[in-house]
Amino acid sequence: MADGLDWESLTEATSGAVGALVSTTVLYPLDTCKTKYQAEVQSHGQRKYRKLSDVLWEAISTRQFLSLYQGLGTKNLQSFISQFVYFYSYSYFKRWYLQKSGAKSIGTKANLVVAAAAGACTVVVTQPLDTASSRMQTSAFGKSKGLWETLSEGYWSEAYEGLGISLLLTANPAIQYTVFDQLKQRILRKQSSKVMPADTKSSPAVLSAFSAFVLGAISKSVATIVTYPAIRCKVMIQSADTEDESNKDTQSKTPKTMVGALSSIWGKEGFPGVFKGLQAQILKTVLSSALLLMIKEKISKYTWISMLALRRFLLISQKKIMSH
């Protein structure tokens, strides 16, 4: 039983999930401001949020600063499950490809396919939580509902709103982790030439915290810029309907498709609206991704040791049971 588990994939998944949990919690207020800013589409002169800081100021001026954390529990749950499923799937598919192909390393094209497949698995599992967290973040400050109540509004099929775009956006982590992995391998190859062969077998090679942070920032920036129009459309589709009477006519009908979202943006904000909030998206996602990967790389060695200890314990327990 213990030998049947893919321990290396499990180590990657656990390290990634823990990193996601920490980065999501630390950067959540910024994420809430970014999401509310992206979700708003109004004609010129009627815009509630003219810049990202307006969202923060609204929370402070209305004494609803803690509302910047509305939906944090759901977001953490979604992030933990998402990253665990993604890293496990990515590591598993990568090892499967190498075993089947007999190659020593995975190329860029194959890496993109593997990352996209892992992303698709993740989206299908976590889409309801993703939709719920977006609705909570875009609700009026102080009026966010719980997870079950949020998902129970309307039909359950609405929990999968934006699934098509989410599947399309699997290209984002595919691009990100491909860029990260390729840069990482180059750095590790240079490091391995300075390390004795006997030392490389003790645990998986890891990047330094600084190197992981820089590579995470670079890889996520590339992925974010390429896929941003779809990112904003997804936020709009999943956002909660406004309860602000002054904005009722312009925002109450949330678009349900990517075409509808793009049409709404183009009609009210023009081409610049397609990239509205790009700076905020890059700031948040780059910091989040870089922090996640830095934590993952830093704890992966200890996670690996813990997994080996758990494997040994399971094997011993299994032998004792069989002996009886």
UniProtKB/TrEMBL annotation:
Name under which the protein is recorded: (wild Malaysian banana) hypothetical protein
One cellular component term from this protein's GO annotations in UniProt: peroxisomal membrane
GO molecular function: ADP transmembrane transporter activity; ATP transmembrane transporter activity
Similarity comment: Belongs to the mitochondrial carrier (TC 2.A.29) family.
Any one Gene Ontology BP term: peroxisome organization
Solcar repeat residue intervals: 7-96, 106-186, 207-302
Organism of provenance: Musa acuminata subsp. malaccensis
Record field: transmembrane: none
Statement: the UniProt record of this protein carries the keyword Repeat: yes
Record keywords, A-Z: Membrane, Peroxisome, Repeat, Transmembrane, Transmembrane helix, Transport
Pfam family, one: Mito_carr
Location of the protein in the cell: Peroxisome membrane
